[in-house]
Recover the amino acids of this structure.
């Protein structure tokens, strides 16, 4: 359990001396085991939790506020400290309360704020990393300052590390200990739009394909002030004893507006807010509108079915007001895949809808459902403005419109035949979407089976990343599954 930069340095030097492979972990928010390894020296950074907010820093062309965070922090803690500060600030970070700094940022880092301010890697001003040979490097866009184990320092103009670490993946080039991010004065208005639709419901019919098509058709038209998520699944709620309703599959829209006015938010969200309201408010509807000064509530008494379908608009005073209520599952047995969907794919909304429906709802209107669930994260916007060579993230992440992660889960008591069946559903969906639409994959939410992982994660950036890897870790001590240099070990 490292608590200081020196603790990390000593651990790195120990692993080097005795040729013990290191592994690096903070939150363990990881789908394919990159933060653990059998027989490794695990360097746990979760106790490194300092947060330092400055109202003005200068880095090259940037002059403004920043926050320096030790990598053991979770984003929720950082958001809260930024909200307490006078003046308040916001940062581009993960929505999940469990996500920590290092792996999230090194993999690119999408966020509800990505469309307004760019990816996490676009907001990095500097970082400190302990290299495989034990040197501590302070890295910026312009210089890299090295300090060896004896305290000797020197500065070079080589900025390969600044490019590589911002997108090349965590625990690959060394051990990150702290990162400095740009932060921003928050917009005046935060509005959350939440709406739940059924996919197939006995009292309405098989309507989910229309819901999904409307999403694919209109999501790209939203201004960059809107970000957030669509969550949908193919679960047979009655058969799984979740609720006693003839409901198979549902959609949860959870979009967040960060902009200049409530009126602008309401005007621009209309393609979703006005879409077949009768499907969101049958006999099971709760509808709330929160304005700046008033709360309007219209509720039908439904007993235990209260939450099933509803539409809600919340107006928040700050980003922390929104983020503090976000929760996430702590630990699950999960198997996932990811697709970075482009504008070109969204333009084929009929075909895209058909492809997802085929696997989520096999059998169409006669479906019995599936065990698949997906989370579509809205990306693009400001991230699309940065040059492709500004960081090592894939252009597919930078220029995509949706990062779609789909998967399944099970409890540990399930037999292997059930697990194989569940994973097969995910694999078939992955094959269909990647063969028909886009090949790009978000590094932080990866599938286990991915033959073309080098180009899927980094497109044409892999060769340069490998050169930087070999330059700083020639013995390939820092390795993990489908990370840079994986196939050389």
């Amino acid at each position: 359990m490292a608590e200081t930069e020196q603790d990390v340095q000593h651990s790195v030097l120990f692993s080097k001396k005795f040729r013990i492979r290191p592994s690096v972990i903070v939150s363990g928010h990881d789908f394919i085991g990159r933060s653990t390894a059998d027989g490794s020296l695990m360097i746990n950074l979760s106790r490194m939790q300092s947060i330092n907010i400055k109202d003005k820093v200068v880095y090259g062309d940037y002059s403004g506020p920043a926050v320096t965070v030790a990598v053991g922090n979770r984003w929720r803690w950082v958001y809260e400290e930024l909200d307490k500060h006078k003046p308040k600030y916001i940062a581009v970070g993960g929505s999940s309360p469990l996500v920590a700094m290092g792996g999230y940022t090194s993999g690119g880092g999408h966020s509800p704020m990505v469309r307004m301010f760019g990816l996490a890697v676009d907001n990095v001003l500097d970082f400190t990393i302990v290299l495989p040979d034990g040197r501590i490097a302070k890295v910026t866009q312009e210089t890299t300052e090295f300090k060896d184990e004896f305290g000797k320092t020197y500065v070079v103009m080589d900025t390969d590390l600044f490019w590589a670490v911002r997108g090349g993946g965590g625990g690959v080039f060394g051990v990150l200990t702290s990162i400095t991010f740009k932060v921003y004065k928050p917009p005046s208005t935060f509005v959350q739009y939440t709406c739940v639709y059924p996919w197939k419901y006995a009292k309405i019919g098989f309507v989910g394909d229309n819901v999904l098509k409307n999403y694919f058709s209109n999501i790209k038209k939203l201004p960059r002030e809107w970000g957030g998520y669509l969550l949908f699944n193919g679960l047979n709620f009655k058969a799984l004893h979740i609720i006693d309703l003839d409901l198979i599959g549902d959609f949860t829209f959870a979009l967040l507006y960060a902009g200049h006015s409530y009126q602008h938010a309401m005007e621009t969200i209309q393609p979703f807010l006005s879409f077949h309201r009768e499907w969101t408010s049958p006999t099971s509807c709760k509808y709330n509108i929160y304005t700046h000064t008033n709360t309007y509530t219209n509720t039908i008494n439904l007993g235990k079915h209260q939450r099933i379908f509803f539409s809600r608009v919340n107006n928040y005073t700050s980003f922390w007001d929104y983020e503090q209520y976000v929760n996430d599952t702590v630990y699950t047995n999960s198997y996932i895949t990811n697709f970075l969907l482009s504008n070109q794919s969204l333009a084929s909304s009929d075909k895209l809808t058909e492809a997802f429906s085929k696997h989520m709802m096999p059998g169409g209107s006669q479906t019995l459902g599936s065990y698949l669930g997906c989370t579509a994260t809205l990306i693009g916007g400001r991230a699309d403005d940065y040059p492709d060579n500004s960081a090592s993230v894939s252009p597919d992440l930078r220029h995509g419109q949706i990062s779609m992660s789909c998967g399944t889960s099970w409890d540990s008591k399930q037999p292997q035949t059930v697990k194989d069946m569940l994973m097969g559903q995910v694999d078939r969906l992955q094959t269909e979407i990647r063969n028909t639409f886009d090949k790009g994959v978000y590094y932080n939410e990866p599938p286990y089976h991915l033959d073309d992982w080098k180009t899927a994660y980094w497109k044409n950036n892999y060769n340069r990343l490998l050169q930087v890897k070999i330059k700083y870790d020639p013995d390939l001590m820092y390795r993990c599954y489908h990370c840079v240099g994986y196939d050389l070990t």
Notes: Confidence is low (pLDDT under 50) at residues 281-308. The CA atoms of residues 28 and 119 lie 21 Å apart. The first helix runs from residue 5 to 17. The radius of gyration is 23 Å.
